[in-house]
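User: Please fill in residues for this 235-position structure.
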């Protein structure tokens, strides 16, 4: 049924469930799923580990050297339910989701030389299509010709509540207000940065999932994908 491989780009605000959504779509279609945010998170962790971040600033003199010696990659989980993010071969999947990394990631992701390296790697991953990638600039910069682009959003308080639950389930101790403040601050930086700011591609379809369940949004997107594939087959 899905023999025409397409590129599906999912962009949007922080913590509105892009990763869960993208992962499910990929599973359903037998596509590859790439969490581009995990790549920026891993680079941020590397900067923290090398003490390159101080007083809300990244050491731009040492950054090129760090980037040259840093490799971000993914391996499949043993039960095949997703990917584990690797930083120079080490499993950092849990560490990149902590508040410490979340608090610095938008700062690091705003730096052009970081974006250049990540975008090149992402484009390489998608060159054979059959991929679902989520992030901030996937439909605008990474894959401007993606066959399907979705822009996700939801009310900030609902996003904070969902993210809080996710972090509590992992045993991380954080408050609702800390999580909400981080989400709002990341949205602000992501939207106002000069290099590839977060914005909706003109041909992206908006999905506000504030009041949708995971299965409702799945139903919605599968219809969209089938329509798209029919259009492509017709030529
Ligand atoms: O999961 P959540 O929505 O909280 O964030 P994420 O997708 O893990 O991305 C973390 C951060 O990386 C974002 O707040 C952006 O600053 C940055 N990012 C980016 O600049 N470009 C991307 N394609 C993906 C993430």
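Assistant: Residues filled in for all 235 positions:
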């Amino acid at each position: 049924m899905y023999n025409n491989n397409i590129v599906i780009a999912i962009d949007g605000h922080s913590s509105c469930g892009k990763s869960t959504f993208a992962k499910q779509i990929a599973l359903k279609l037998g596509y590859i799923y790439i969490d581009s945010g995990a790549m920026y998170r891993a680079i941020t962790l590397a900067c923290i580990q090398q003490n390159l971040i101080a007083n809300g600033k990244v050491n731009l003199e040492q950054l090129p050297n760090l980037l040259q010696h840093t490799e971000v990659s993914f391996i499949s989980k043993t039960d095949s339910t997703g990917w584990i993010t690797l930083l120079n071969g080490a499993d950092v999947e849990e560490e990149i989701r902590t508040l410490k990394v979340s608090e610095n990631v938008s700062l690091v992701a705003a730096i052009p030389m970081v974006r250049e390296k990540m975008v090149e790697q992402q484009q390489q991953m998608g060159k054979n299509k059959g991929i679902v990638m989520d992030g901030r600039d996937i439909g605008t910069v990474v894959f401007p010709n993606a066959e399907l682009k979705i822009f996700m959003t939801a009310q900030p308080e609902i996003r904070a509540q969902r993210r809080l639950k996710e972090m509590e389930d992992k045993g991380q101790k954080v408050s609702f207000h800390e999580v909400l403040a981080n989400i709002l601050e990341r949205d602000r930086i992501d939207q106002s940065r000069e290099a590839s700011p977060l914005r909706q591609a003109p041909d992206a379809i908006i999905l506000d999932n504030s009041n949708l369940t995971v299965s409702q949004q799945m139903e919605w997107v599968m219809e969209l994908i089938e329509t798209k594939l029919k259009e492509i087959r017709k030529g």
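For context: The chain is about 50% helix and 15% strand.
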